Every structure is written in C-alpha cells, then in structure tokens.
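testing teh design pipeline on a random one, pls ignore if ur not involved
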C-alpha cells in the first residue's frame, strides 16, 4: 500500500474552523485526521500540504518513521503549527492502518482497559453573562447526565483582577455550586490569565467550593511559576493544552508543575505521541485528561486513546455545537450517565462528508478570551450533538 495524496478541508463551525485531513492510498483505503489550530487554521493547512511531498509513495503503515523523520526534517522543531499538522496526518495514518486490518485503533495499541470514559462538559455556559445565567445552564446540563462542568468565570481579565471582578467570579462559582449541589465536579478554567499572586489568591478563594482543578492559572511559558502556584494553593492544578510533544511534558513532569496533564491530541503530535506522554505521566502516578474542545475527528481519536490508556482519567466534551455538526461526519457517539462509550468500528470509527464540509467554508474568527465575549462560543439554537451509539447524532 502506498500513499497517493492528501486533501484538506477547512470548515467553519462558528467559534473556529475545523481543519480536516484526508490521506489517500493506492488500495482505495483512506484515513481521516484533524489538524485544527484555533484561529491559525490556514497556517496549519499550509503546513499539512508541505508534509504531502514527504508522504507520496510512502507506506502509510510506517507511522513512527513518518513522525520521527518529519519532526526531524522540519529543523525548526516544535511549536503548535508543526505539531498540529503532524497530529492531523498521523491520526489519518492510524485510521488507514485500523481499516486495513479491520480493527479499531485501540486494538493496535494494546487493547481495551475500559469500554467507556467519564466526561466533563464544556460550552454548556454559551451566552451566559451573569451568575444567574451560569447557574441556570449548569442545572440544565447536569440533567443531561453530566457529572462534571468546566468554565471560565473571569470575564475579560488578564494578569490581575479588580475587586469587583474578583467578587463577581466568586459569586459565579458559588451560584453554579448551589445550582448543581455537592455531587457534581466543578473545574475552573483560567485560560492562562493570571500572574502568580492573583492565581494564588484565586486558588485559596476557590477552596471552599470543592474545586476538582484550577486549569492553566498562569500564561504558558513559565513552568517554574506554575509549580510555585501549585505548591502555594490547596486545590489541584491542571495544565498542558499549550505544550507540544513529549519533550515539553518532560519538563512539566520534572518540575512537578501540574496534578492533571492535558495534552491536546490535535496539537501535541498525534496518537502515539499522546500515548508516550501518558506513559511518562504514569511513571509519576499522574492522570491524563486530554484537552478536547474541537471537532468530531479529534473526539473519535481521543476515545481510541481513552480505551487503551490506564491513567486516562476524564474526557473533555463540548456539550453543544452548531446545529449542522451531525452533517459533517458519520459521527455516532453514545453518551449516558456522564459516560461516553468507546466505539468498536475499524480505524477511528468515523468518516467525513466532503460535500457538507465544503458547504461551510473558512471564516476568520478571533480569540474571544479578553474582549468580554468569551462565553459567546455557540450560535443561537446550538444543541447537543451526541446520540445513541446505534443511531445518528441528533442536534
């Protein structure tokens, strides 16, 4: 079997654009992957196209060779554009291998250790502005079966918080905790916003709400600072969505800078790279909870890793999405009682609908984190995208 070409699709989904990769072979088997890098989608699409010349005529089964040689030959190693492009192509190669052998990807990585994985909800808060808004939507989301909720209550803050903004954020957390009760996990997202003293003050203030973790309290780039915050607060710290490859995570682990590791499959280098990071974390008795707020292909591939990775702890899911998500792929996902079922279909267990992807062409979207519109991540009418495992996903 030889690779004959790569196609890319950049599909607008309101908050960002999915970057989908399709790798084709001379035996008629193709694989799909996702290389979505939010707000820099065209840069990644160009990087994927540059990888194509290294792949034409090559054996798609030689995944380790593809990754190591292309990481080496990029020369300017690391960084999100290269590793996201590698991730998308690498996912597609695993999809080809699984389809060719007639087995799910997890069977090629050691087989299952579980049949389903606990999920936490993101995006449930879409459109919320006040503590009352967040509380109402949190209660509705818990009724859907979620047992864990994540959100950023910090408005447009960066580095520090005014007294008013600090109080409003704590009021928001308190309102959500009161709305869902003590049995639901709350995960507070920092989005890399704060300086060390503000992060420490927030960490202490959040203690009384029984927070599962405080995510990315500091901007990326200072793991020593993150380790200091972790030492000075009494709630767990989660980090890693803006780290790339095992070498970045080696430093995170060496500094003991996080309690939960959050590599993003779309950005960190691919399925095998995430497995290597998880194995490193396992040696430190740390759980991995992959960052997973993007698209259908990444979700499907991350489920394959969840199936076979012992220290995979919890999966991020977007509880709602654009109303046409179910038209873009053949995605079918079973979700009930806070758990997402791991499918048993060959490869990644998903394919794309090219015409539907092309019907929603690229649209530029800018980061909303610091302009006061962070929660406006879904259009009016967005709904749940998951359905029963034996039927199509429903909007």
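output:
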């Amino acid at each position: 079997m030889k690779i004959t070409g790569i196609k890319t699709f950049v599909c607008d989904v309101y908050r960002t654009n999915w970057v989908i990769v399709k790798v084709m072979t001379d035996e008629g088997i193709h694989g799909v992957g996702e290389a979505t890098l939010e707000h820099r989608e065209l840069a990644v699409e160009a990087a994927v196209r540059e990888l194509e010349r290294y792949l034409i005529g090559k054996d798609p089964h030689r995944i380790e060779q593809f990754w190591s040689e292309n990481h080496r030959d990029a020369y300017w190693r690391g960084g999100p554009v290269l590793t996201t492009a590698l991730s998308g192509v690498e996912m597609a190669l695993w999809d080809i291998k699984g389809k060719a052998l007639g087995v799910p990807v997890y069977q090629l990585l050691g087989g299952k250790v579980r049949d389903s994985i606990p999920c936490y909800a993101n995006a449930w808060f879409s459109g919320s502005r006040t503590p009352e808004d967040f509380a109402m939507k949190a209660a509705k989301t818990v009724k859907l079966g979620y047992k864990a909720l994540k959100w950023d209550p910090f408005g447009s803050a960066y580095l520090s918080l005014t007294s008013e903004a600090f109080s409003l954020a704590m009021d928001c957390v308190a309102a959500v905790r009161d709305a869902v009760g003590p049995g639901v996990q709350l995960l507070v997202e920092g989005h890399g916003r704060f300086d060390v003293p503000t992060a420490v003050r927030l960490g202490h203030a959040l203690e009384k709400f029984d927070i599962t973790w405080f995510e990315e309290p500091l901007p990326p780039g200072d793991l020593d600072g993150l380790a200091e915050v972790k030492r000075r607060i009494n709630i767990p710290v989660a980090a890693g969505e803006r780290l790339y490859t095992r070498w970045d995570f080696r430093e995170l682990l060496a500094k003991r800078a996080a309690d939960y590791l959050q590599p993003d499959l779309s950005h960190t280098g691919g399925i095998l790279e995430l497995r290597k990071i998880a194995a490193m974390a396992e040696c430190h008795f740390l759980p991995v909870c992959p960052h997973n707020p993007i698209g259908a292909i990444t979700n499907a591939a991350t489920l394959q890793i969840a199936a076979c990775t012992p220290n995979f702890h919890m999966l991020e899911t977007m509880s709602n999405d654009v109303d046409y998500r179910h038209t873009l792929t053949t995605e079918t996902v079973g979700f009930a009682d806070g758990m997402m079922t791991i499918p048993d279909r060959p490869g990644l267990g998903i394919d794309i609908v090219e015409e539907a992807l092309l019907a929603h062409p690229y649209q530029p979207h800018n980061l909303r984190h610091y302009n006061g519109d962070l929660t406006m991540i879904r259009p009016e009418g967005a709904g749940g995208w998951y359905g029963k495992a034996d039927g199509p996903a429903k909007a």
